[in-house]
Amino acid sequence: MLQDYPEVITVEELLDILLIGRNSAYRLLRSGEIKSIKIGHTYRIPILSVKEFILSKARMDLSKYM
Description:
Structural class: alpha+beta
Shape: globular
Helix content: 40-55%
Number of strands: 3
Distance between the termini: 29 Å
Order of helices and strands: EHHEEH
């Protein structure tokens, strides 16, 4: 699925990938949970940062059961 996206994505693409709302996406970006680059008023998100975020959440969920 993520291989269909470019190496650097927009907030709109992040919404599509994570199936979250705009406010949640900006909250994740501003908090640094998903690393991004802000150019002017526009965020650019390396797809690698999205992968790392997903994997970190998966690890947290798995640790609940160990």
